[in-house]
Each structure stands twice: as C-alpha cells, then as structure tokens.
Amino acid sequence: MDPLLNLRELGLTLPAAPRPAGNYAAAVLSGGWLHLSGQFPFLDGRLAYTGRVGAELTEQDGYQAARLAALNVLAQIHAVMGGFDRLERLVRVEGHVAAAPGWFGAPKVLDGASDLLVQVLGPRGGHVRSAFTPASLPLNSAVELVVIAAVRES
Amino acid sequence: MDPLLNLRELGLTLPAAPRPAGNYAAAVLSGGWLHLSGQFPFLDGRLAYTGRVGAELTEQDGYQAARLAALNVLAQIHAVMGGFDRLERLVRVEGHVAAAPGWFGAPKVLDGASDLLVQVLGPRGGHVRSAFTPASLPLNSAVELVVIAAVRES
Amino acid sequence: MDPLLNLRELGLTLPAAPRPAGNYAAAVLSGGWLHLSGQFPFLDGRLAYTGRVGAELTEQDGYQAARLAALNVLAQIHAVMGGFDRLERLVRVEGHVAAAPGWFGAPKVLDGASDLLVQVLGPRGGHVRSAFTPASLPLNSAVELVVIAAVRES
Fold first, then answer.
1. Kind of pairing between the strands at B128-132 and B87-97
2. Which chains does chain C touch, 3 or more C-beta pairs < 8 A?
3. I need a surface site. Which of B35, B113, B142, C126 has the fewest CB within 10 A?
4. Overall number of domains in chain B
C-alpha cells in the first residue's frame, strides 16, 4: 500500500509542507514519536477555509477544510520523515472546528480528515480523535488539526 | 487495590465503553502509551449533560458530568486493556468544560473527574490536568475529557 | 549553555512553581516523558493577566502573558527535575489565548512563550506549537500553556 499512489488515485498531490507561523518547529521527532504543529487548511500558501461552520461555512465546507488540513498533515510527515516508510502509524488526531453558537456537528466535519488519512495510509492511518468546537481559531481558520504519530527513527 | 471493587464501593458499575462518533478508534496502544479518544458524559447511550456551566448547568451539574465522563474513561481503559492490571498509571487528563461567558470555575468542575479516577485507581490514578472553557463542545456536551495513560503492552 | 545564567542575563529569576488548582499533579514523569499541567501567567501567587486579547488586553499584553506563563513552565520543569540537566528537550507547546471575537493574532502572542523558552534553553527549547483562541480560559486567564518534554529519568 503506497500512500503516494493512493493520493494519486484520489486525484491529489502532496503540497509543500506549510511553514511555521512563529518561533517554533513544524515537527519534532523524539523517542519514537513524531509531534506535529497545528495544521490548517492551507492551499498554495493561503487559508482556503475561514470562518465558522454553522454560520459562514456549511458542514460540507467544513468537511473539505478538514480534508485539506489532513493533506497538510501528510505533507508534514512526508517532509520530516523523507517519505512514509518509517511511519509506524498515526496515533492521535485532535480536531478543532470553528463553530457558530448552536452548531454541534463536529464529528461529521472531522471525518473529512479521518477519511483521507485512512484512505491514504491504510491501516497505519487509524487514530483516536477528540473533537472541539471553539468560537474561533487562529487566523480565522475553519479547522485546525493536531497530530501525533509513532515512527521508526532510523 | 482493586479498581472494580472500588467502583462497587462507590455504588458504580462500569458501563459499556462508548463507541466512536466517526471514522476513528476509541483507543490506540503504541509504545507503552494508551491514547483515548475524547470521552463525554454518556449514560446508556445518550449524553446525560448538555449545555454550559454557568448558564443551563450549575457547577454541581458540571462536577457530575465530569465524573460521568471519567467513568467512561475507565470503561474505555478496561475494554481495550482487558482489565486494569496492565495499566501502569494515568498520565494526562485534559478537561474541557462548556462555559457561559463570565464563568471561570473549571477546576472545581474537573475535580469531578479527578476525584473519581483517584478513588477508583488509587495512586495509579494521579495525573496532570489542563482545564479549558470553550463556548461549546461537540454534541452540545457539557464536558469532554482527553486522557493519556502509561501501560504495559503484554 | 546554562539556563539559569540565561535567565539572569534576561533579568529574570525562576519563581516558585505554581501549585495545582485541584486534585491533580503539577507534573508527571513517565517513560522518558515529562507532562506538565496547564500553566498560567501567575506572578507571586496571582494571575497577572486576565481577560481577552483584542478586548481587555492588547497583543503586547498577550505577549507578556505568554512569556510569564512560559516562565512558570520553566519553574515547573526545574522543580520536578531538580534542575535542567536531565531535560533532553521540549517537544510540544500548546498555547491557548483568550480571544475577543474578530481577533486572530495568536501566533504573535504565543511567540512570547516560544521566544523565552528558546532564549533560556537554547536548542533544547525548540518545540512544535499549536495555537488556540477560545472565548475564555479558566480563572479568566489570558493565556494557558500545555507543555510536553523529553527527559532522562535518571
């Protein structure tokens, strides 16, 4: 199961891994764990989805935003690990969805991330998830994903 | 110190572990760590506490919601580890409490979770905690807990 | 590179590590990882920065709040590890900034934490970061930091 081939079959290509927005690292590898910085629905250097699901954005927009943020997760893993060979498995995905008052459907939106990660990585893409619906996210992003993975360091 | 006996002495029984709300796993075990998905105050398949502390709910409601979510944490650990024998210790509890504007008492509410975890697991139940007070949580839940534990894998 | 000397050159001294606000531990050490409880901008036992950036507080206030919370992170590490010798490196910093509606500048504010951690710890202070902008935080704090570090246990 080749993740890059799976991406191609979905009509997707791996973007350049987004750069940190401040004085921190995009990824840190330590003790067999890969920690990634928060990932957003960036496309070609700009946020493709801003605003809140349930107000400025529909649930379908949110699903696509989560999927795009997950594509950037894959790009970060590929960039720091030099490919997917040394990825043992994803472990945790925390999904934050900017939500209008009264909108509570985060699980459906975050399946946009989970579906892509499993489609591309196969069994290695499985993960626990926790969903959050803050009133807003940095940069007015619609979605933010925080991912931890288990890796072989050499 | 038998966690199941402790539960019984508190008049509690372990519920069935809640199932994931989307395309993810309830728990992932990797490298001696057990990661759990976000746990909510589910009781018999439905959310028992919805709304915000400081508005629809009192602090005492919030305490009970946190305690119920922690009971589901225990159910998840028991389900995935086949009991509590291979649980070394809890490590982290992140507690999210849906909060009305101007209400800031999350630590008291989250003691509902911490108290139960320590009562049931004893010294193995100790943990670091971080508290958050978002405007809302998925499914309009009052509380969400994210837990990481150290375990023996075999 | 001596972190305490670096602190002195910045005109700072390590405060007493803040005590937990409830039934939990300030820090847990397990399997080579140090987990810290949420840290706030406490100064001499009281919160020095309350309210939301973009409303009651400016971005510069927020930067100082993040810096002060990071000083408490350093105090916690020093207290639990008996110094900085056994700190391998910081790994993750999650930064939560209480935000007024329409304010989205969390990365600049959280550099207040990241800048201090790198100034004091040098290369060991590098970390991945994720930024969040909830409507409020516990105790009406302006900032909360959640930190994970890699350590040598003996």
1. parallel
2. A, B
3. C126
4. 1
